Amino acid sequence: MTFEQKAMAVRMVSSINEIRLVAAVMSRVLVGVAVVGGALSGWAADEPDRHRPNIVFILADDQGQHQLGCYGAEFYETPHIDRLAAEGMKFTDAYAACPVCSPTRASIMTGKYPARLHLTDYIPGSDAAAKDQKLQLPDWRKHLPQEEVTIAEVLKSVGYVTGHFGKWHLNHDKKYAPGRPGDPGSQGFDDVLTTEKPGAGPPSPYEDDAHHVREITEHALAFIETHRDRPFFCYLPHNSIHQPIAEREELIARYRSKPGSDRADHNPTVAAMAETLDAGVGRVLDKLDALGLSENTLVIYFSDNGCMWGPDVLKPLRGGKADLYEGGIRVPLLVRWPGVVAPGSMCDTPVTSIDFFPTLLECIGQKTSDSDVDGMSLLPLLRQEGTLKRDAIYWHYPHYHSLGVAPSGAIRKGRYKLIEWFEKSIDGVETPGAFELFDLASDPSEQRDLVHQRPDLARQLAHDLAEWRGHVKAQDMARNPGVRTVGGF
């Protein structure tokens, strides 16, 4: 579906009949119409805007839980982000849908697993990382398809003004222009600023703003100020704390002088970057306060994957970015919504980034059917009124990453997590080390592989993981005929 078709459909929404008409029109021209139809058909058009919460979604880049004070960090200073935890809910077992950025961002926008979207690596990926490897990369999709319905489009269709300020990373080539297919503006965002990491695009207009934190924040503040009298969705996907690591020297020096700065898991430059990011979050929260909007604004803080600063950095979690060990996928999640979410509350239910789409819809009075999206609404958890009736969470990463991580998949079911290494389980023929099984309740650091102690459980989880891949039509990896191997593969 073209941007013009989407825009025409959205403009038609002004009454119940028109909403139904949009759903009917889209049913003929839009793949995945069940999402939009379900999202729009139940909305009461005459409900006062004041009952619809504003939504501010802040997405950090490559930030682990260990880099936030509210998750126990003592070296890193994040008082404004910690404020969200004190005034809202902290999730201990929140997961990114992928251990790298673009697939997680796509999951946030659509509520679908990256495996279903066939968008399973960072865009454009690295074919060089797979050269001369045992498995061939699938012909994966290097953009978010235009026909996919985003959360911004659904919110816009029911009266929200939508703003995107920061990193998009979901179109073909990461070049952005207003109205260009694949850009945020063609996927439901009214007001758009796109930024990239240092050296990859235009620099920030502000001095000492290498990762565009101030630029992103300034645009967000202006957006909130301008649209203070109507419901808004303000999406702030930051470039920080992604590499290259760079920050003001005087701020770095302050952390170099702190006790513990010589520890592997304490990086003074990253700490300085985290402080700058935290300050930007604080300015957004202060703006909501100043405008009297905090009480009716849902604020979400999340990260797209774990950080990449070395194997010891995320302790006690194992691994890091590109890994399906906990360090690569378990991330911070904080949610503040006064009057709904109890201050200082905590949730240890496993949740994931595919859950944001149905959560935001239910927060504005909408629901999706099971066929619309893969995620589940977190509203019962936020209200502390129920649990999620979900059997498991899944991951599929059929790629070789330049950090040295091999292709893998994973399933978490209850307290147990199974990782499958595709090189060692190709064609259903297992070689040693094909699977690893961990009890995350007693071993969150994933140091004790239970495959040989619990073989029946490992087999069942492996079966469930394979069955899920078939259900979402995940792309498999085939043997590379040009690579000779020995030792059973």
Question: SSE layout and pairings?
Answer:
Elements: H1 3-11, H2 16-29, H3 33-41, E1 54-60, H4 79-87, E2 89-95, H5 101-110, H6 114-117, H7 151-157, E3 161-166, E4 191-194, H8 213-226, E5 232-237, H9 249-256, H10 268-290, E6 297-303, H11 326-329, E7 330-336, E8 345-347, E9 351-352, H12 356-363, H13 379-382, E10 393-397, E11 408-413, E12 416-421, E13 435-439, H14 455-471
Parallel strand pairs: 1-5, 1-6, 2-8, 2-9, 3-4, 3-5
Antiparallel strand pairs: 2-7, 6-7, 10-11, 11-12, 12-13
CATH class of the largest domain: Alpha Beta
Bin the helical content: 25-40%
* Radius of gyration over C-alpha positions, nearest whole angstrom: 22 Å
Q: Could you name the ranges where pLDDT drops below 50 across 5 or more consecutive residues?
A: 6-48
Mean pLDDT over the residues: 87
Structure description:
- This protein has 489 residues and is of the alpha/beta class.
- It folds into two domains: 51-382, Alkaline Phosphatase, subunit A, CATH 3.40.720; 393-471, 2-Layer Sandwich (Arylsulfatase, C-terminal domain).
- Helices cover 29% and strands 15% of the residues.
- It has 14 helices and 13 strands.
- The protein has helices at 3-11, 16-29, 33-41, 79-87, 101-110, 114-117, 151-157, 213-226, 249-256, 268-290, 326-329, 356-363, 379-382, 455-471, and strands at 54-60, 89-95, 161-166, 191-194, 232-237, 297-303, 330-336, 345-347, 351-352, 393-397, 408-413, 416-421, 435-439.
- Strands 1, 2, 3, 4, 5, 6, 7, 8 and 9 form a nine-stranded mixed beta sheet that branches.
- β11 and β12 (416-421) form a beta hairpin.
- The N and C termini lie far apart (44 Å).
- The relative contact order is 0.17.
- Mean pLDDT is 87; it is low at 6-48.
